[in-house]
Amino acid sequence: MKNNAPPFLVAIVGGSGSGKTWLAEKLQSVLGGQAARISLDDFYRDQSHLSEADRALLNFDHPDAIDWAGLKTVLKELLAGHVAELPCYDFKTHCREREVLALEPKPVVFVDGLWLLHHSSLRELFGLKIFIDCPVQTRLRRRIDRDLISRGRTRASVEKQFNETVEPMHREFVAPQKRWADVVMPYDLTEYDARQLAGKLAAKLGGVGSETVKR
């Protein structure tokens, strides 16, 4: 299957717990069927070949934990107007699931993740690059809330990982990406802010989803 117009790719970058997923989902919701979303989290490398003990020793807060070639393939497929297959990642086992999701190209595709601007060859694929600036204590609190509920973690394990790897890796790899962003947004975003951004994006793309934005 091939569509005519290539999608407009939007990167949403920021530290863990900064609000990337929230913003991507809100923007997608406002634009409705004109938009799709991809999470960098689903492109963590499959670790099924390792024992559980060895998996626990890996640094999942380093860019090398990501299958960048796989992500680039998906984005280029979409830009070419083709349906792309998205992997599904299980954070409890650190393995990819057998299931894949078919994603059709939409006028706008939001991609959210920690290190989307780290590699220049990937940066150049995005028509708009957004960085969410968020203080460390807010990011830690949000990460604890998320991981306890959706990833089967304990508070102690989340805090330990945050202090030992998440925050050091944030300072080394996440924060420096701010200089490549077209837009830097505050962490305390509201739904109004998201709708305003969606409206500007719709106008930029010639009215894509404009009726939905006005509601």
Q: Can you identify the CATH class?
A: Alpha Beta
Unreliable stretches:
210-215
Summed up, the helix count is 8
Q: Give the proportion of residues in helices.
A: 40-55%
Determine the N-to-C terminus distance.
32 Å
- Domain module count: 1
Strand order of the largest sheet: 2-5-1-6-7
What's the pLDDT, averaged over the residues? 91
Report the major sheet: 5 strands, parallel
- Give helix and strand order, one letter per element, not per position: EHEHHEEEHEHHEHH
Rg calculated over all Cα atoms: 17 Å
Task: Specify the overall morphology.
Answer: globular
Tally of DSSP β-strands = 7
Structural class: alpha/beta
**Fourth CATH level, the homologous superfamily:** P-loop containing nucleotide triphosphate hydrolases
Q: What percentage of amino acids are in beta strands?
A: 15-25%
- CATH topology grouping: Rossmann fold
Q: Can you name the CATH architecture?
A: 3-Layer(aba) Sandwich
